[in-house]
Amino acid sequence: MATTTIQVTREVRDHLAELAKERGVSLGQLVEALAAEQPTAAQRAERLAADREVARRRLIGVDLSDEEFDQAPDVLGNIYKMAAEKARAARDAVA
Asked: Which one-letter DSSP state was computed for residue 59?
């Protein structure tokens, strides 16, 4: 496998090296794992299209266009927002 060099500041290199050490992996393995966690725009679009196709197959008798999906409320985003608000309120109540 071919390798390459990535230039970062010493502080970033040291931080990444510490993270790699804590996880018991090499610096290269850490960078690969971090990169794998961040999908590209094309990968996100592919995932969105696949998710919409699954939804269309499961919603028998309901034909939703991409435009209708785009106009739908962000249910998961709203759930995350509500959970974050509750977590902050619980933390503030303890403090």
From this structure: S
